[in-house]
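Input/output pair, single chain:
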Amino acid sequence: MATSSSGPTATCDSCGRVEPAADVEAVHRVYVTPAAWDVEERIEVVDEVERWCFPCRSSYPHQLVGTEAPEL
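Output:
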C-alpha cells in the first residue's frame, strides 16, 4: 500500500488501478458458467483473496471476503 498526499492508496489486483485504500476491498474471484442445453450452470468461488476497486466490483462476479453469497 502506497501513500499519496491525499492518503493511503492501494492497487486493484484486477485492473491495476491505483485508488484510495478505503475504496479497494478484499474479494474472492467468481467464475460463472451459464447453463446450456448440455451443461448445468456452474459457479466457482476461488479461495485466493484479491483486492478490487469499485469499478471491477461493479463489473465482474465476485464474493466479498466474509460474506456468504457471491455478487453476480
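Strands lie at 2-4, 7-11, 18-20, 25-33, 42-52, 62-64. The mean pLDDT is 93.
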